[in-house]
Amino acid sequence: MSDKLTHINKNGEANMVDVGDKPIQKRTARATGFIKLKANTVSLISNNMMKKGDVLSVARIAGIQAAKQTHMLIPLCHALQLTKVDISFDIKEDGILVNSLSRCLGQTGVEMEALTAVNVALLTIYDMCKAVDKDMEMLDIRLVEKTKV
């Protein structure tokens, strides 16, 4: 692994990396994040009783849409043809663990798409629950795995 920043050119300016000479590979990335919630909020979500609607379904769609738009949000990201984006939730007593999977056939990785999906899914949960839970915290957002074959 190199210590050189790839998005900086020889003059120290921001630069989009040229991936044109890299081989097309099956690339996968997984990310995770947690939103800490009050027990009552977890119960409202679990029983689909939140006023704004089905929190997890909306968060899933928001995360998928966000992954597809990552190149529009992060200036130096390449537009990727995603072949799969999946968002899953693990409901805990004190919150919800959000997991994402992003996959493509391409010349650059999909970790930014996986991380964007998790962040937007968490933000959507936050938005849909803010009326009933003023103490929510988004924690431990991180890349779990990145592979290419």
Automatic annotation (TrEMBL):
State the protein's name. Answer: Cyclic pyranopterin monophosphate synthase MoaC
Q: Per its UniProt entry, what is the enzyme's top EC class, as one word?
A: lyase
Segments forming domain Molybdopterin cofactor biosynthesis C (MoaC): 16-148
Give the record's pathway.
Answer: Cofactor biosynthesis; molybdopterin biosynthesis
> Which keywords describe this protein according to UniProt?
Lyase, Molybdenum cofactor biosynthesis
Q: Which gene encodes it?
A: moaC
Q: EC number(s) per UniProt?
A: 4.6.1.17
Pfam families per record = MoaC (PF01967)
Q: Does the keyword Lyase apply?
A: yes
Q: Which GO terms describe its molecular function?
A: cyclic pyranopterin monophosphate synthase activity
Q: InterPro entries in the record, alphabetically?
A: MoaC, MoaC_sf, MoCo_biosynth_MoaA/MoaC, Mopterin_CF_biosynth-C_dom
Record keywords: ATP-binding included?
A: no
Q: What does this protein do?
A: Catalyzes the conversion of (8S)-3',8-cyclo-7,8-dihydroguanosine 5'-triphosphate to cyclic pyranopterin monophosphate (cPMP).
Q: Where are the transmembrane segments?
A: none
Q: Write down the PANTHER family for this protein, in alphabetical order.
A: MOLYBDOPTERIN COFACTOR SYNTHESIS PROTEIN A
- Source organism per entry reads Carboxylicivirga mesophila
